[in-house]
Amino acid sequence: MKEYNLNESYITDIPEKKALSTKNLQVYYGDNHAIFDANMDFPRYKITALIGASGCGKSTFLRCLNRMNDKVARVDGNIMYRNVDINSPKINVYEVRQHIGMVFQRPNPFAKSIRENIIFPLRNTGIKSNDELEERLEQSLRGAALWDEVKDDLNKSALALSGGQQQRLCIARSIAMHPDVLLLDEPASALDPISTSKIEETLQILKKDYSIIIVTHNLQQASRISDYTAFLHLGHIVEYNSTANVFTKPKMQATDDYVSGNFG
Ligand SMILES: Nc1ncnc2c1ncn2[C@@H]1O[C@H](COP(=O)(O)OP(=O)(O)OP(=O)(O)O)[C@@H](O)[C@H]1O
């Protein structure tokens, strides 16, 4: 593999309001230093893509942002959300995850009906009003562009949906919580091209209301759907800029090599 100077990076200052910021974020799995000194701001109501070769730390970085790595890794540094450091041990992680939702690579609906997939977690947060539950059910399924396909069959098992529908149900389950930020870890990598383009269309609509951060291996997907892109290499954020700049005028050699396919 080519060697690059990892002490150099190009990290842009974003003009938008910030949804989340990381400050000197370091992640260790035992002795393995997986993320080095990550300092970046994620914009509100935009899609930010995290790209880079396998093992560079994309999922690790993403999972820190709503404290999903707490039990497996040591995470030092700050993650600022609404002026609060949500990486502090004093913070209630369940509350963090209501504000910052996550959708995983493989669709993981509960083995329950479509309706219960949305309503069960909402009830667990203390919402009792049936009117509110029903309203959030419809709103979230509409938001995830699934309502028209399932509205007549809400009591059907979620496991009977196609993979692409299951993934949109998982997106609906996340947005039913009314989060501010939606984290997606390769949400379309297990899906066929038609389901993938539905997910991409859905994300374009959702970014009006949510700040979205997505890990993707698919460079075309990153360039199609994201506004900003961060390129990671060996745990370092090498470049962070508007997606157009990262793909057409990269500042760093490693980024240039990666986006033009000359990497490795
Ligand atoms: N749960 C874990 N326990 C120990 N080490 C881990 C764990 N998860 C990831 N790592 C290590 O952290 C580093 C970054 O992995 P990560 O999965 O974040 O990369 P990635 O860029 O998302 O890779 P991929 O594109 O293959 O999913 C790798 O060295 C990996 O082996």
From TrEMBL:
Protein name, please? Phosphate ABC transporter ATP-binding protein PstB
Q: Which InterPro entries match?
A: AAA+_ATPase, ABC_transporter-like_ATP-bd, ABC_transporter-like_CS, P-loop_NTPase, PstB-like
Q: Which Gene3D superfamilies does UniProt cross-reference here?
A: P-loop containing nucleotide triphosphate hydrolases
Q: Which UniProt keywords apply?
A: ATP-binding, Cell membrane, Membrane, Nucleotide-binding, Phosphate transport, Translocase, Transport
The keyword Translocase appears for this protein? yes
Tell me which residues make up the ABC transporter domain: 20-259
Q: Which PROSITE patterns did the record assign?
A: ABC_TRANSPORTER_1, ABC_TRANSPORTER_2
Name one molecular function that GO assigns to this entry: ATP binding
